[in-house]
From TrEMBL:
Name this protein carries in UniProt: Uncharacterized protein
Entries under Gene3D superfamilies matching the protein: Endonuclease/exonuclease/phosphatase
SUPFAM superfamilies (UniProt xref): DNase I-like (SSF56219)
Species of origin: Rotaria socialis
Length: 84
């Protein structure tokens, strides 16, 4: 999976999220951020975020994949049941 145009809340510190995501979206009259899709893929479907596996400590602008300094592109993997 790739360009999800969705957000993962864990990618952002509280301050960054408030200022660069919530306030920017309100000011620009854009839709509020939603995490339903990434939560579904990670929590219910048990996929693993490949970027997070390699970069567990990066956040805020360091994870950005678009001009709005947010991350909307993902690579998810799920090991096979019989894959040791």
């Amino acid at each position: 999976m790739g360009d999800m145009n969705s957000l993962t809340r864990d990618d952002y510190s509280n301050d960054y999220y408030q200022i660069n995501i919530l306030e920017l979206r309100e000011k620009s009259e854009w839709a509020k951020p939603c995490f339903d899709l990434t939560n579904l893929v990670l929590d219910q479907w048990s996929y693993i975020d490949a970027f997070r596996q390699i970069n567990p400590d990066l956040n805020d602008e360091k994870v950005a994949t678009c001009q709005f300094t947010i991350r909307i592109d993902y690579i998810y993997v799920r090991p096979r049941v019989n894959d040791s």
